[in-house]
């Protein structure tokens, strides 16, 4: 992923935690790993159920953990 694309994703993100950008997309949340050269992303529901992913299983666990620990910081945006 180019630096310009990373910057664009980071600017659009509602929250960034540990290199993962969290973006609200209608009723779902898209999580993008900004530390990967290739675009690694996952789409989840607001309650943390995975809908689709291009992340490996370990990355999925890490991203979901970061979501569950920090989702309250997006509550105003989601509610």
List the main descriptive attributes of the protein structure presented here.
79 residues, alpha+beta, 5-stranded antiparallel β-sheet, 3 helices
**Structurally, how many domains make up the residues?**
1
Low-confidence segments? none
Main β sheet profile: 5 strands, antiparallel
User: In which order are the strands of the major sheet placed?
Assistant: 1-2-3-4-5
Order of helices and strands: HEEEEEHH
Q: Assign a percent range to the helix content.
A: 25-40%
The DSSP helix count reads 3
Strand content of the residues, in percent?
25-35%
Chain-averaged pLDDT: 90
Shape: globular
Strand runs, count: 5
| Spatial extent as radius of gyration | 11 Å
The SS-based structural class is alpha+beta
Ends: how far apart?
31 Å
Explain what this protein looks like in three dimensions.
With about 80 residues, the chain is of the alpha+beta class. It has one domain (about 5-79). Helix content is about 35%, strand content about 30%. It has a five-stranded antiparallel β-sheet, sandwiched between helices. A hairpin with a 4-residue loop joins strand 4 (about 40-45) and strand 5 (about 50-55). The radius of gyration is 11 Å and the shape is globular.
């Amino acid at each position: 992923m180019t630096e310009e694309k990373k910057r664009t994703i980071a600017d659009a993100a509602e929250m960034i935690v540990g290199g993962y950008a969290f973006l609200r997309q209608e009723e779902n949340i898209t999580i993008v790993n900004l530390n990967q050269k290739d675009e690694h992303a996952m789409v989840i529901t607001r309650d943390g159920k995975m809908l689709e992913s291009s992340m490996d299983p370990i990355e999925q666990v890490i991203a979901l953990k970061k979501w569950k620990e920090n989702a309250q910081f997006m509550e105003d945006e989601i509610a």
